[in-house]
Each structure stands twice: as C-alpha cells, then as structure tokens.
Amino acid sequence: MGLQCPFCKAAIKPLARYCPACGKRLPEQAAEVPVEGTIPGGRHIRIIGESLDLRELRNVVESSVRWWQANVKEGDSVSRAQAAQAIEELSQILHSLSQQIERGQKMVRLTKRLPTLRLDAVRCPACGLSNRAGAKFCHRCGLVLGAQPAAAKGPAMSLRLAIGARTDPGRVRAINQDTVFAGALALSDGTTAYLCLVADGMGGAKAGEYASRLAAEVTRTRVQREVGQDSPDDDTAWQELLRRASTDANRRVYEDSRSDQARQGMGTTLTIALIVDNRLHIASVGDSRAYLLNRSGVTEDGLPSTQLTSDHSLVARLVDIGQLTPDEARTHPQRNLLYRSIGTDPAVEVDTLSEQIEAGDVILLCSDGLVNHVSDEEIARVALTQTDPDAICDELVALANQRGGRDNITVVVVRVTGNEQA
User: Fold this and answer.
1) What's residue 136's pLDDT?
2) How do residues 191-248 score in pLDDT, each as one tens digit?
3) CB-neighbour burial class of residue 110 (10 A; exposed 0-12, middle 13-18, buried 19+)
4) Domain membership flag for residue 145
5) Residues 21 and 168 reside in one and the same domain
6) Angle at CA 257, nearest 5°, toward 371 and 35?
7) What are the backbone angles phi and psi of residue 226, rounded to the nearest 5°?
8) If you count DSSP H runs as helices and E runs as strands, how many of each does the chain have, helices first?
9) Which of 38, 49, 221, 325 is the most exposed place for a label (fewest CB within 10 A)?
10) Is 227 a member of any domain?
C-alpha cells in the first residue's frame, strides 16, 4: 500500500508537501524523508573535453538501481514508496541511455559546464590584482598595463583573511554527521597558511559522524605535518599534497569500516581549501562544494560567482547532459547518491585545482544541506552583501532551515581584503 494523507487518507506521492485531495500541509516526515547513500564499487565517470562517456554513466545508473533495491526497508511504507519511485525514474533514464548506446553513440555532449575563471597572466604593478593576457588596462584600478613609469610600480597588495564557520543539524536529522575545520597552519618558512575543510558523513547510527570526523582529522594532521617540514613551492606540489592527504583519509575510513561491522559501508565527502599567500588550492571528493565569489566578477564573462568543484553525484551528471535542471536536482530523490566518496572503496580519485585570489573575493565551502535549499544566486547575494563571515554563515544556515532543513548544514566563509601596508 502506498503513502496516504494522515488527514483524509488520500494517496500522496513520497515528495508531496500538501495533500492533493484535502489541501492540508503534510507532516515533515511524510512530506520528505532524508535519503543518504553512496554507490560503492569503484564506478567512475570521465568527462573528456565537452563530452561524457555514456557507458560509464549507464553503469552508475545501474548501480543506483541496485542500491535502492538493497536499501528498501520492508516495514517502512515511506521508504518502500520512495524507493519504488526512484527505481522507476532511474529505469526510464537507463532505458534512454541504453537506446543511445545501441544506436552506436558512445559520448554525449554536455549542456552545462563550470565557467572559465578569470586569468592572472598580467599583474597590475599598482594594485597587485590580476588581469587576463592582452589586457591594456587593469580591470580594477584602471592603470594602463605594459611599460609603466617607475612611480607606478610598487609591491603587490598583501591580503588579509577573515574566516567564519558554522555547522547545524538542520530540522530533520537527529545527529549532525557534518564535520568542519578552519584554522591557521605554520609553514616551514615561518609564514602562515589557512586550512578549511567540510566533510559530510554517510552511514547508519553514528557511522557517518565518525567517518567525517576521522577524515577531517587525518587530513588536517597530514597537511600540518607536511607543510611544517617542507612547504611545496608551486601549484602542482600543493595539489599533490592535498591529494595525498585525501587519499590517506580514504584509506583510514575504509579500513575502519571493514574492521567494525557497525561502521560497514560508512563514507564521507571531503572538500578542502588551503590558502597560501594569494593562491587558493582546492581538493574535493563527493558533493560538498567550494565557491569563489566577488562582486566585480570571478569568471571571464564577469559572473560574480562560480562553483569551483564538481559534484560526484548522479544528479550532477544528469544536469550536465540536460536530463535535469539545477532546480530539479535540488529536490531529486537521487540527489544524495554519490559515485565517488571517501572511505567506500580502497582507492579514490581526488579532484584538485589552484586559483589566484584577490581583494574582494569570498571563498565559501558548504555541505549539500545548504545547496539543497539555497540556490547559487542566493548564496552569492548573501555572501557579497554581508561583510562579517560569521554573519554570512548564520544567515545561510537560517535560510536553509527556514526552507525545511532536511539535512545537516555546514558553511565556511573566507573573506579576502587588501592591505596597502604590504
């Protein structure tokens, strides 16, 4: 028997918020049940140029169907109805992908990609900010670039950072399985770097909480030890350091999940931001996100915000190929199913990148408990109209809770300002 309205007993859908028959607001638990999960087994999806491998995507969809089939609770009508709907939707997608493959199509073109970020090929000698190659004038202060009179030259602007962090259980979950860290690290040359990370755990009982906490601690310890002994000297080396730390965290979580039956199958996302001088180094596994925002623009097209990380989730790839819109992805039953996470497989692939930062930037990390309720545009508006990082975190967490707070909510905000006394 399917779901019923508790007031009039009419049939309702698993994600309904109001009864279609009597119009009454449905209880939170009946309206939407939080679902979390990861798809173990080493599934990978490659993006080659502007295309995505159809067969790899089909493998992930098949894994998702099996995950739902294995996680249906016989005595829970809500879970069974939700699983049935998810399997039906996934089966339709699977049929479409299979038809394309049978017609000989191997790749599908992406309809949504992360925008190209601003380039820092030309540095302004007056204000120290970056400009794209070929720029004749500084995009921030207007100085003519190229051969400059001696009076116009000077040291680059140094940067100051203000950091805020918040984590909240939300309005539905009893346990907060998110872990957050934000703090300073001493480098081997006597200078200071800043490490921020968000980990969103998955697993029954307290296993997800344990997984995220363990991954965060292993990562922080590994990074602190390495930078204190011998700090890297270029972007590639910094990214490799973060990759080693993430891989170390994956090994520890995986080993613990195998040695304790109560923690079997646990995992976590992990998104790391390491700020050294005017460089931002990112590592990411899962669907916790990192954003870069600036009122004056952070992309070549002048957009004020961009997502630096790619969600390793099925719905993100369905958005990539036009099967879902970003708004649909935020409430989709499969939004929490990941094909890549920390601790669910013995090895993990880690995304890394490095970017220039400058005065006016806001770096924001968050778990999916925020983006399931708050759009990218709203995140940018809040982050760029407030000046206090703690106030930004508080407002975003409150906004997600006002809209249901279906999951744990974690936000880290780093506000970058200039200091003329370089």
Assistant:
1) 67
2) 999 999 999 999 876 899 999 999 999 999 999 999 999 989 899 999 999 999 999 9
3) middle
4) no
5) no
6) 30
7) -70, -45
8) 10, 18
9) 49
10) yes
